[in-house]
Amino acid sequence: MKVFVYSARSYDKPALQLAAGGHALQFTEQRLKRDTAQLAAGCEAIVIFTSDDASAPVLDILHSLGVRYILLRSAGYDHVDLKRAAALSIRVANVPEYSPNSVAEQAVAMLMAVNRKLIQGQRLMQLQDFRIDSLQGFDIHGKTVGIIGTGKIGMAFARIMLGFGAKVIAYDLQVNPEAISAGIKYESLEALLRQSDVVSLHCPLTAATRHLMSETQFSWMKPGAILVNTCRGAVINTVDLIKALDSRQLGAACLDVYEFEKGLFFEDHSGDIIHDANFVRLRSFKNVLITAHQGFLTTDAIKEIAETTINNLDCWQNGVPCKNELTVKPGIETDALERKPRIVGSI
Ligand code: NAI
User: Are residues 146 and 219 in the same domain?
Assistant: First the structure.
């Protein structure tokens, strides 16, 4: 089948090519959006990533071009309007489980870097300032870690925290029996936030989780607690996050994702002026560590993503049920809205 791959990068092109089998892949580094949809003309399938825009108007264009299959090289599918895809008979599949450990380990790495002030330590080292007065952290051992979303990644993170000797508590709409057998107690969101020294977000972005962490929820948090977000940026209300940091209610934040990352992350904007005052402000806090959505970026995960993506396509081509096919679930709305990047002009 002819397949058009959007947002292709040096790290995933070789893996996809290796997995491609009989499929003819064409690549572009450009994001899928209204004005790049046309590039897929002549291809029956497209492969997209989280930075791509598969909102209703874009799906309409793709359908008119003959695109019938959308393969996500991601677990999250909040950027796809599944209702519109179903109405257009476009089939969509994701990679639900490539390496939950890749993201969980990124969350742990960020937590440890922020808590133990590793980045500041490195900067001082480079300045040959060997004082350690500003580098104090706290033991994770014996502290309470709250996990929001006890699915695959949340549980991988929970297991690591249990290994550290932390008390792990959780909030989720569904109880995971694996969490119960690990001795994890479920709490209400408020009770979890009031008790936790560290809170880590691992839920999908849906209409229900959009801005799940807003002013009220920040006010429930233990003063000085650390918030880790490796799920989706819009689960946090960015303006309220900045207020919580300003007032020092929040001790620190680790962000692998950002509410307005589309058109920003995964791209080189080193020559651009960024007109997103909130993003610039967030970067200015010493106690905020931001990475550009790299949680999934391990060799193991990239290989698994490529193989599952092509396998999903093979299933459809061979008329075999595709276990990763996404359908609209009642009560769960996705968040596929067109969002304009906030970058204007060049330096
Ligand atoms: P999963 O589907 O295994 O687990 C998600 C959990 O969230 C489930 O237990 C579900 O019941 C829970 N949940 C759903 N709605 C909720 C709500 N309103 N309140 C509380 N909990 C709720 O998903 P998995 O594989 O653990 O991934 C989680 C998220 O991580 C993905 O949806 C994606 O957005 C993000 N992700 C980020 C990556 C990165 O590179 N930073 C890479 C992969 C995934």
Answer: yes
Backbone dihedral angles phi then psi of residue 345, each to the nearest 5 degrees:
70, 180
Closest approach atom of ligand 1 to CA 294: 40
Ligand 1, atom 14: nearest CA belongs to which residue?
203
- Say if residue 249 is in the same domain as residue 108: yes
Question: Could you give the residue numbers annotated as active site?
Answer: 232, 261, 293
Report yes or no on whether pTM surpasses 0.85.
yes
Count of structural domains, the chain: 2
Q: What is the pLDDT of residue 345?
A: 47
What is the rounded CA–CA span in Å between residue 189 and residue 191? 6
Cβ atoms of residues 111 and 198 within 8 Å: yes
pLDDT digits (tens, 9 = 90+) for 242-285: 999 999 999 999 999 999 999 899 999 999 999 999 999 999 99
Its domain, for residue 38, covers 2-98+299-343
Same structural domain for residues 217 and 83? Answer: no
